[in-house]
Amino acid sequence: MGITGLLPFLEQATRNCNISEFRGATVAVDSYCWLHKGATACADILARGEDTDVYVNFCMKYVKMLQKFDIKVILVFDGNHLPAKALTEKRRRETRKNAKVRAAELLRLGKKDEAWNFLRQSVDITPLMAFNLIKECRRNNIDCIVAPYESDSQLAYLNLKGIADVIITEDSDLLVFGCSKVFFKMDINGNGRLVDKEKIAVCMKMKPDNYSFDKFRYMCILSGCDYLDSIHGVGLKKALKFFSMTAETDPLKFLDKVPRYLNLKNQVVNEEYKENFMVADATFRHQIVYDPLARKLTYLTDPAVSGTRPEYCRNAGKFLDENIAFQVAVGNLNPYSYEKYDDWSPSGNWSSSLHSIWSSNYVKKISRRAQKEIDKMENLKLESIQAIKQNKLETEKKIVDEVQAFKFESQLDIYYSKSKCNQLVYSKKEERSEEENMNLEVIKDEPHNIEKQESTLYKENSCEEEFVKDKSPILNKKFINPFLKKKLSKFNSVEIDEKVIVRSKYFHSKSEEICYEQEKIKEDVKILYEKNNDTVSLPTKRKYSFEEKEYKVDENTAGSDLLIDSSCNAIDSKSFATLSQVKTTNFVSI
What we know:
Residues 440-472, 474-479 and 528-590 have low confidence and may be disordered. The protein has 3 domains: 26-365, 3-Layer(aba) Sandwich (Rossmann fold); 380-489; 510-589, no CATH class. It contains 24 helices and 14 strands. The strands form 4 sheets. It has a 7-stranded mixed beta sheet with strand order 1-7-6-5-2-3-4, sandwiched between helices. It is elongated and about 155 Å long. The chain has 590 residues and is an alpha/beta fold. Helix 4 crosses helix 7 (127-139) and helix 11 packs across helix 12 (236-245). A hairpin with a 6-residue loop joins strand 6 (181-184) and strand 7 (191-196). This is Exonuclease 1.
């Protein structure tokens, strides 16, 4: 039963655990596995055809153990046989028949121990035995469902649809159907082996990019299953070796390569095997099951969606009448002969608190672990929302504080600017008063300087806005370095006289130098004339022209005071004349 050697092959995807890990969850149970174990305890009674409830009590012990861990139990029973398993069922019937004959012979010989082993092999679980367990489950408010065909596909459907979280079975075929978590070899204490579908890629030694569940299913079918015998000499290891050597995913293409890749001499994959392979694959994927929530028959997965050809689904089962399918599912009819066992109806017999799959308002029971995760996520959401709100409030408060601080600083800047302006004006007044005392005579002689100083003083006593506008652009900034501001405030403003000619010492021509000296002499003569002085000091080693006549000042006359005599048109140290008779505009340096 199942795929030979599959559980040892999946050792890396398997771990020991206790069913209590799924406290509060929903589990679906392959009931025929428990019935087979319970029937072996009363195999002799069953072989004699006597009635007994030993197997029922055996199964109920497991059910109560699961309920003790707050686990909701759904018992799933086998239905009719699939056409695909006709040969398999025929072999099993012959095996049971032969075992029963052999047990009778050993009992006549007095070999009870050997006879007991064959008696256990001869036990056949009948639909009536399953019905006895169903009746006991109804009395204990435990959900039961009879599959239209195999229980494996029905269990897989409950798991894939999220109705059941874990599957409890002894049949490795459940993994090929695509169940996510399968619990094997569970004892009365709840200990067993859990296989996780997500870790199958590790067992196949494939990278996640190269692995697909379809490859795993193809490998199992190629190694031999209940729906198709394997190619001679091909098991799980060789099947895995083949799929590790090819990237082809179409069975009709890669099956031709199997003998060549695996070095199987005298082995040929014919068209019949290819078709049977496709039929077996479609049976695993599209077997007909019963939907207890919608109360109708359906496919495990829709073949139209996956693109499976209809002729490949010939062994996946047939759709029955809705009423017959429902009566079979609740256990009122024999799944083989449709013989009536009971008239039980789930409508009105289930409390909503029981989370029954037959309830019209079914709501899946959430496990404690899942509820903890949900509560944890909700708490995280609430905490994150509160944190966001708190950050928002803090940000708004910070912005308000910054705005108020900015307004306060702006107000302080106004008073600060006024005080600085007044201090600067007062300091300049004091400095000017000292300068006025020291240069009183110069100021009297230069009335235009007095006017200039008065205008400057008037400007310094102007309003605050003009002072702020005229100061350095660096000081106009609202947020500046206070130390930089103090340093710049030490310096007084620089006033430039437009009448003063700034002349470079190095960058000028000869003509520019002569013009400059001429202007200088004119200015000196004009100033001396205005002051009514009697002498004019001229630079030495220069020629001068007075009324278009050239004169030279040499070393003999250097340093002496020269007087200009306009009557003799000469410059010497012996002639005298008054400056009022001199035309200074005609006295230039040449």
